[in-house]
Design brief:
This protein is about 25% helix and about 25% strand. The protein has about 190 residues and is α/β, with parallel strands linked by helices. The protein has a single domain, classed as fumarase (Alpha-Beta Barrel). The two termini are about 30 Å apart.
């Protein structure tokens, strides 16, 4: 396992191709937040052929809805939410230029195929560590769907945001491969 690898947004195909499953990364630059409701709105705009409120080209979406900031903070806790909840919308967003996603948990077969097809990457962030992850957010502003409250789309500027490559553009899957390795190491060949 290499790392940590410094990644700066926006991403391009060459940067994505250098990343491998299991790589530890430190992400710096602009990252957008979006959760279920925002994804649905973006998806509906794409389906209708209408312009999006943000340019997805080369961007990373972080599946989070930060809690309100206390005095002196940029944002409150900003932990990842389960990525699978966005799977129905993700292939369309990747086709629209999205290059990376940050969340937690496995992705569907359709998303894994779209990641390969569009040369993208899925990063896993540590669940339960939202207060620590928020320390890497240096700026935050709502840029779309303010009516969604904490699920509005925010433009974050992050510095050395820690994550791990869970799915790379070659089709490798950290969740599947790690589970298989664990089973083989601790249980031997099954079936």
């Amino acid at each position: 396992m290499r790392g940590p690898i410094r990644v700066t947004t926006p991403l391009d195909g060459d940067a994505v191709r250098r990343l491998r499953v299991g790589d530890r990364v430190l992400i710096s630059g602009v990252v957008y937040t979006a959760r279920d409701a925002a994804h649905r709105r973006l998806f509906d705009l794409i389906q209708a052929g209408k312009p999006l409120p943000i340019d997805l080209s080369g961007q990373i979406i972080y599946y989070t809805g930060p809690t309100p900031a206390r005095p002196g903070q940029i944002v409150g806790s900003a932990g990842p939410t389960t990525a699978g909840r966005m799977d129905d919308y993700t292939p369309a967003l990747l086709e629209a230029g999205l290059k990376g996603m940050i969340g937690k948990g496995m992705r569907s077969r359709e998303v894994l195929e779209a990641i390969r097809r569009h040369v993208a990457v899925y990063f896993a962030a540590l669940g339960g560590a939202g207060a620590l992850l928020a320390r890497h957010i240096k700026e935050a502003e709502v840029v779309a769907y303010e009516d969604l409250g904490p699920e509005a789309i925010m433009r974050l500027v992050v510095e050395d945001f820690p994550a791990m490559v869970a799915n790379d553009c070659r089709g490798a899957d950290l969740y599947r491969d790690a589970a298989r390795e664990y089973r083989e190491r601790h249980w031997g060949p099954i079936g």
